Amino acid sequence: MQRIVTLDMEGVVTPEIWIAVAAHTNIPELRVTTRDEPDYQKLMDQRISILTEHQVSLSVIRGVISELSVLDGAREFLDDLRQKYQVVLLSDTFEQFADHFMVQLGHPHLLCHRLDVDDDRVKRFVPRVVDAKKQAVTGYQKLGFHVTAVGDSHNDISMLQQADAGCLFRSPLGLPDKYPDLLPLEAYDELTKWIDESFGT
After folding, report:
1. Co-location of 93 and 61 in the same domain
2. Is 58 helix (H, G, I), strand (E, B) or coil?
3. Are residue 96 and residue 151 in the same domain, yes or no?
4. What letter does residue 166 receive in the DSSP assignment?
């Protein structure tokens, strides 16, 4: 059977964008991420409301992102995986946020969302499909692929549980306890070893 490895982006190969934006703008409410709020639509509605209230433009957010680097070892980890497997980033980030990181990561295949923007202001977020990560995994499986999935937060759980093999990577405290069937890992070498060994599980 052919194989695809799907990875979340933020927290797995890149830093958390919204935490960096919160630090730059001095708006602590923007520090809330999918590690804290499981309902992604609710989280994005809250974020957009905060951006509107504080008049934070898309250009400001993109400026913050432009100063960030991918996580230490992430490019090497991805390059190693891509030598062996088809690799897809399944992310709840946005096209308007991700281009900077895609250059650093060697332009991996990314499936993500897009923000509705008007006059440099983020207006709304409408998901392409509900539970896009799980839907992508299901689609690959219907095409006959074995899917190995890696994520770190609440919004990754349905993807990880749908996959043929799934694990948590650098997840927040308490999350592995809620999902004992998902192996928690912390280092890229451990993750690479698990991915190599998980085919056929």
Report:
1. no
2. helix
3. yes
4. E
Tell me if residue 8 is catalytic. yes
Separation CA 48–CA 56 (nearest Å) = 9
- Quick one: 10 and 21 in the same domain? no
Per residue in 95-139, pLDDT (tens digit) is 999 999 999 999 999 999 999 999 999 999 888 888 999 999 999
Active site residue 67: no
Would you state the pLDDT for residue 165? 97
What are residue 197's DSSP bridge partners?
none
Record the pTM: 0.93
Q: Given 10, 152, 156, 164, which residue is catalytic?
A: 10
Residues in the chain with pLDDT values less than 70: 200-201
Q: What is the CATH number of the domain that holds 46?
A: 3.90.1470.10
Only one residue has tokens 């890696």, namely 150
What percent of the chain is helix, strand and coil (3-state, nearest 5)? 45, 20, 35
Same domain assignment for residues 34 and 89: no
Which residue of the set 8, 92, 152, 164 is catalytic? 8
The total of structural domains in the chain comes to 2
Give residue 114's domain range. Answer: 3-15+70-198
